[in-house]
Specification:
The protein is an alpha/beta fold. Strand 8 (about 180) and strand 9 form a beta hairpin. The model is unreliable at about 535-544 (pLDDT under 50). Helices cover about 35% and strands about 25% of the residues. The chain has a 9-stranded mixed beta sheet with strand order 13-12-14-15-23-22-21-18-19, sandwiched between helices. It folds into 2 domains: about 1-270, Rossmann fold; about 285-415 and about 425-530, Rossmann fold, CATH 3.40.50. The termini are far apart. It binds glutamine. The site of glutamine has 10 residues, from strand 19. Glutamine binds near residues 353 and 405.
Length: about 550
Amino acid sequence: MKVLVVSGGVISGLGKGITTSSLGRLLKARGISVTIVKIDPYLNVDAGTMNPYQHGEVFVLDDGTEADLDLGNYERFLGQSLSGSHNLTTGKIYRSVIEKERRGDYLGNTVQIIPHVTGEIKRSIREVAEAAGAEVVLVEVGGTVGDIESMPFLEALRELSYELGEGHMAFVHTTLVPVVGPVGEAKTKPTQHSVRELRAIGIRPNLIVARGPAPLTADIKAKISLFCDVPPEAVVSVPDQSIIYEVPLVLEAEGVGPLLARLLNLPDRPPDHSSWKEYLATYRRAETPIDVAVVGKYTELRDAYLSHAEAFHHCQGRLGVGIRLHWYDSEDIPRNPAIVARIEQADAVLVPGGFGARGVEGKMRAIALARTAKIPYLGVCYGFQMAAVEFARNALGVAAANTTEVDPATPEPVVSLLEEQKELSELGGTMRLGAQRVLLTPGSKLAEIYGKTDLWERHRHRYEINPKYLDRFAAAGFTVSARTVDGRVEALELADHPFFVGVQYHPEFLSRPEAPHPLYLALVQAALAHKEVPSPAAASPALA
Ligand code: GLN
């Protein structure tokens, strides 16, 4: 087993997840199999109950784990699906230590952070490595070195490197090199301090990835090398990139690929980045920008809808169509007519998933607009449920239509709680979660888009379409285009519309640069067609 650890210093939010994914990519490009583990030192057992405003989107894995959004980056960069065991949290580790203690597994011993908690951490990492059968396990340690919460994890990794021995484990430390003052001086002191912190706990970094606004000069690299006791070629510079998928190539250009091979005692074959380069070239070449309005509740924090943004990115890299995303807070819509006017000019509208009553009226306003003005529309999960409620209200005249999530006593529950959810009192991990089989209606638009009728998509919801309304929907041209194996509604599509599709599942979690999701590709193509149809809206100025 070979392990590559990525830690971070100075501040969080340095793009450690992207760095880790990119390092994995460099190894993969050399034909080395890899897998990744993310350590989140917080006490939550998983990310499912966490507010997207604090941590960004909750990323759902095939097995239903609600994970940190970095797991999404890993899957996208590596083109591999991961499972819950790839996300370790303090909550998970402690829970299993406490369960073992209660069962008497520790045979009367005093249970301590060292060796029991650290032992549990090492065991979990080894288990993932074995299950994945990968040559290299990358381990990203969340937070920054020096945080109390991350101590047991770093200690466990230090112990592991001792156990595995020379040539089996390497440490990468990501730090910030800020540029300050009127002449733009790059400052190495924060990096020095954070490396000192790391060395105080017995870890000597083998590679320093310096993040910052601009590339480091040879002088600054030499300075970091001297103060931090790493060879000059092991100080690499990754300046901010406008396209995150550039990072593997930046690292490659800095000579990191051969260096990793050397550190981990692996063969250094010439890397193959051809498909990646082609993706980036197509992305860059993109013309004919289309404007997509994304209407949600957490639009101030882009990370809350990261996978949607990435899915559109993948379409641009595949189709060469420029895609401009415009984010609108659904709560602003009822009180700001200017936003309505702008959505009217969009080439496509997306309403992503969400929870609760806040902002739903605005979402339905946007959906009504897309439906009646025939703007291509994709509704995902809550955006799908809202499309059903909007249709019932405005197309069928069922004025009281609602989801029981917003009004538990509604006389017209178009969307209501799954039977199995009615008894539950816990919030964490209790939704319908993860990859489930979806059967498409042969001959539907959706079936045509996918080019098949039997597939798997990831889920995360509690409420579903109430079958009672399906006949009336169908009579008005809003028909079921997908179902679960046991017949529940997974998708609806509108007949008399260029593209109006709602899906109960989350296609955004499966889109990857090398395999963009067919639904997003279809939406973008419909948007392109919409843009080319001359309309009064097309004559008005571009969206701000
Ligand atoms: N709130 C809705 C439900 O629980 C939709 C969930 C979602 O959009 N992820 O069913």
